[in-house]
Amino acid sequence: MPTSWYNILPDLPKSLPPPTDPDEGQSRLKRLEEVLLAHCLEQEGSEERWIRIPDGIRELYEQAGRPRPLIRARRLEEKLKTPARLYYKAEFYSPTGSHKVNTALAQAYYARKEGYERLSTETGAGQWGSALAYAASLVGLELVVYWVRAVYKWKDERRHFMKAFNARVRASPSKHTEVGRGLLKEDPEHLGSLGIAVSEGLEEAGKDPRTIYCLGSVLNHVLLHQTIIGLETKLQMEMVDDYPDVMISCLGGGSNFGGFVLPFVADVIKGRKIRFIATQSEAAPNLQGEYRYDFADHAELTPMLKMYTLGHRKKMQPIKADGLRYHGAAPIISLLRHEGYIDTIAYPADESYVFEKARIFTTTEGFLPAPESAYSITGAIDEALRCKETGEEEVIAFNISGHGLLDIEAYREKLGI
Amino acid sequence: MPTSWYNILPDLPKSLPPPTDPDEGQSRLKRLEEVLLAHCLEQEGSEERWIRIPDGIRELYEQAGRPRPLIRARRLEEKLKTPARLYYKAEFYSPTGSHKVNTALAQAYYARKEGYERLSTETGAGQWGSALAYAASLVGLELVVYWVRAVYKWKDERRHFMKAFNARVRASPSKHTEVGRGLLKEDPEHLGSLGIAVSEGLEEAGKDPRTIYCLGSVLNHVLLHQTIIGLETKLQMEMVDDYPDVMISCLGGGSNFGGFVLPFVADVIKGRKIRFIATQSEAAPNLQGEYRYDFADHAELTPMLKMYTLGHRKKMQPIKADGLRYHGAAPIISLLRHEGYIDTIAYPADESYVFEKARIFTTTEGFLPAPESAYSITGAIDEALRCKETGEEEVIAFNISGHGLLDIEAYREKLGI
């Protein structure tokens, strides 16, 4: 297992545009500094290429089953009759079902070290809330999760899963914050939004010095923690004496994609050749949006980040791969996209195409992927079929960021099984 | 990863009483011979101590994530303040959620090798059906599962999970067999039983030479395949230079318990000292029944096996740990129990005691166990607390045979979360 995370900031082809604040008093930037953990804030702008993973976090990573396997997809190759060699990283072997534990454990560890007793956060699809519930439980912290009411009502099992780890889970908007109370006064059945849930999480942390807020994607330090995925993959590729020509993963905010590819982007900046493909949904093809400064949340509580964005108040149709439904891509990924390092493809929003590909993967390789990961698989299968046509023996590496065991209902609906 | 399975038959303190048939024509014994795979039938009575795992099965085990970790439960030890050292085997890191894949992959591999095109089986809790659906899909065989209607109707997600692997899943009794049609004529809403489902699976295989029947527990060859668990555990214990004083697992028919302990029982037969504890429910405390010949199924289609039994038509109240609800224990385990090698404890059938223990495990170690595995955990915690009282630094090893991600509703109900 790697002993350091890889920080791409000093190696980027251009320096990363900093967050800005349209407010004259810079209140948003100040709030960001106040709500982030000191360790994470330092990592957010660090120019150190390698940041040592504290022993305590390495031990937590081991407890969570790291390192995770890189698997040669021989059965899938045979099924597709492709000359390509396919490898997938098995992030689905996670106690909560996704790669989100990689940063949840780091943030919970730092919070404990910095003397906090409680964490607060928001969650949309529920993967981040589950991962932080797990991490908080392991290091002995309390957790309050504000969960977008529309999803809270629907995903019963994931809610009880978080509660099994003793998390407090509140439908957002809630009665527990001023923001929430105001919105409930207008509409007692308000279905909420990720932006509102962020506001409630921030308010919760702001009013109690024992509580700190945690974030699950987009920011630099989150991508930093996730580089454990790509660093392991690199070592595992070396062990089988192979190297990718193409790397593929799905992208919502960018944490699994970034974690998987950034250690390889470093090689490409130095002159090696890899195609990086971010797979998305036409419901939220943020990498095909505009590259400009935009807010990270609906309610404009965060500073503005320079990123590919669809607009922070863009309405996006519901899809099963809810984790891909975000208006903007992480600033690091956005810069790399702008500089021509990253390709993207968006699949139709009805999702039958990606679910059929997920089924091919499930019946050959034996693992039921998360709906989000079905997009990684679809990209990999499409590339493998291209190689079949051209006869190219390319090496295609893709990341399966989560399992679908809590999403079986989505499979039933989409596959008609 | 071990290269052979361990066959305890030649090492047993007494020779294993063979199956018998009260029918003069021995029709049941003949049927058993006809429906079992040739390789499994040979293994069933083999006197070879080590049976090589074919390369093809080893490759399938690797694909399924073997070897699986043995984890030192340091957080649980701290929580309990016990001087004991606790280790658990992580069989929950399984593509379908349980240890059942260990024999499912072996049987599917042999079936393919022997030229069959289809498998048939029954399932009760659904773990065995899921594992065989997975295995059949990977080796390229069709599968028909007869699933006790009472459970079929209730566990939607597990049903769709099997179907994602292309299994045909039929509520039993069904219209597809004579046995089923007869019972449906009497009662169109018949809820079925494991015995009826067995009959339908057997009939399905009997009428089609392309189809072979597979079994998920009780028989010697199933326990043989499961010894991969204990053999790995033994190697992993050696790597940390430790050795168990106590070994604990839950027991329904006996496949996970047997697989975990039999390689260590071999040491005890040679003079080492280990206490083996099978944890059960008061709803089905079969190891506290009578040691005698009894049928393995409700409908008396199987030969009689010498085993600890509650009687093959015993009514047993429903519990969440449905996999423990079986009237008899595997003949090998029963003999060892009779000879004094194995202790047992049965926990109250309302299950609140075991679910609370499962929660302690979840919040400290981070893994949500299957309801059945909650019984292993309860045994381990009780032993650890005993050590706390006596001050003994014992080594306690236990097996977590499955995860609870498809059983969250049971947790909600039992824990009131």
Architecture overview:
The structure is a homodimer of 417-residue chains. With 417 residues, chain A is α/β, with parallel strands linked by helices. Chain A folds into two domains: 64-98 and 226-415, 3-Layer(aba) Sandwich (Rossmann fold), CATH 3.40.50; 101-215, Rossmann fold. Chain A contains 16 helices and 14 strands. In chain A, the strands form four sheets. In chain A, strands 3-4-14-9-10-13 form a six-stranded mixed β-sheet, with helices on both faces. The first copy, chain A, has a four-stranded parallel β-sheet with strand order 7-6-5-8, sandwiched between helices. In chain A, strands 1-2 form a two-stranded antiparallel sheet. In chain A, helix 6 (127-139) links the parallel strand 5 (118-123) and strand 6. The model of chain A has no long low-confidence stretch (mean pLDDT 96). Chain A binds chain B through residues 63-65, 69, 71, 75, 90, 93, 95, 97, 134, 137-138, 156-157, 160-161, 163-166, 359, 362-368, 405-406, 408-409, 411-412, 415, 417, and chain B through 63-65, 69, 71, 75, 90, 93, 95, 97, 134, 137-138, 156-157, 160-161, 163-166, 359, 362-368, 405-406, 408-409, 411-412, 415, 417.
Structural descriptors:
homodimer, 417 residues, alpha/beta, Rossmann fold, 2 domains, six-stranded mixed β-sheet, 43% helix
Span between termini of chain A: 40 Å
Total domains of chain A, how many?
Answer: 2
**Would you count the extended β strands of chain A for me?**
14
Rg from Cα of chain A: 20 Å
User: What's the CATH topology name of the largest domain in chain A?
Assistant: Rossmann fold
